[in-house]
Amino acid sequence: MLMLSRRLLMPLSVAVAVAAATTVPAATAVPVPMPVPRSAAADIDPVTFAAEPAAPAAPAALAEPAGSAASAASAASEADVVHRGHVAFWSDQLEIRLRTANRGPADVSASTVRLRFSEPLAVRQQLPAGCLWGGRAAVLCETGALAKDGPARRTALDLRLAGRPAEVVVRVDTVWSGGARDADSGNDTHTVLAPSTGDPYAF
């Protein structure tokens, strides 16, 4: 899995562009006409001081109450991602069927599920579209944008283990939910023990 980070971080090219736009060369600093005492100058970065003048305070009548702003931000960034499905295991074959949904209150712009295994996976096998290796014993799959109370996104994996153990433990969790906070992680984090019987074990 070319490995994905939990926060699918800002692309490097964007980060470089932002840094370039916000960096002020020393040559653009505005000279101070009056001499500054040595003790005061030691505490002032002339570039920062010239590039970042203090913004005037907003009029009291236009200021939004801190409480209402915090409540609106919280409601807009909270979602409840849910994973349901089953695991079946026999011989060296591992079948995983997954349904991912969002109970809201906010929509999720993008999401990624991680599946980790107690046994290493066979190297020579192809993963489904939208999935990447996360190591010898982990796979990450994008589960896309999830609308509040919208249809579930389905993911199907048919994997092979490197060996033929008597059982395998599968751990399921969300590693990215579009930046939304998930207050209930109990319904998107699962640990499933699947003996080598071929029977489906639900989560």
Account of the 3D structure:
By secondary structure, the chain is an alpha+beta fold. 16% of the residues lie in helices and 32% in strands. It has helices spanning 12-22, 38-41, 46-51, 66-76; strands at residues 78-79, 81-90, 93-102, 112-117, 131-133, 138-142, 153-160, 167-176, 181-182, 190-195, 200-202. Strands 5-6-4-8-10 form a five-stranded antiparallel sheet, with no helix packed on it. Strands 7-3-2-11 form a four-stranded antiparallel sheet, with no helix packed on it. It is elongated. Mean pLDDT is 75; it is low at 1-74.
Short précis:
16% of the residues lie in helices and 32% in strands.
Q: Count the beta strands.
A: 11
Describe the main β-sheet briefly. 5 strands, antiparallel
Radius of gyration: 25 Å
- Form type: elongated
Query: Strand share of the residues?
Result: 25-35%
Instruction: Report the average pLDDT across residues.
Output: 75
Count of individual helical segments = 4
> Could you state the order of secondary-structure elements as H and E?
HHHHEEEEEEEEEEE
Question: What distance lies between the first and last C-alpha atoms, to the nearest angstrom?
Answer: 24 Å
Which spans have pLDDT < 50 for at least 5 consecutive residues? Answer: 1-74
Question: What fraction, in percent, of the residue positions are helical?
Answer: 10-25%
Order of strands, widest sheet:
5-6-4-8-10
- What structural class should be given to the helix and strand makeup? alpha+beta
Search tags:
203 residues, alpha+beta, 11 strands, 16% helix
Topology overview:
Layout: H1 12-22, H2 38-41, H3 46-51, H4 66-76, E1 78-79, E2 81-90, E3 93-102, E4 112-117, E5 131-133, E6 138-142, E7 153-160, E8 167-176, E9 181-182, E10 190-195, E11 200-202
Parallel strand pairs: 1-9
Antiparallel strand pairs: 2-3, 2-11, 3-7, 4-6, 4-8, 5-6, 8-10
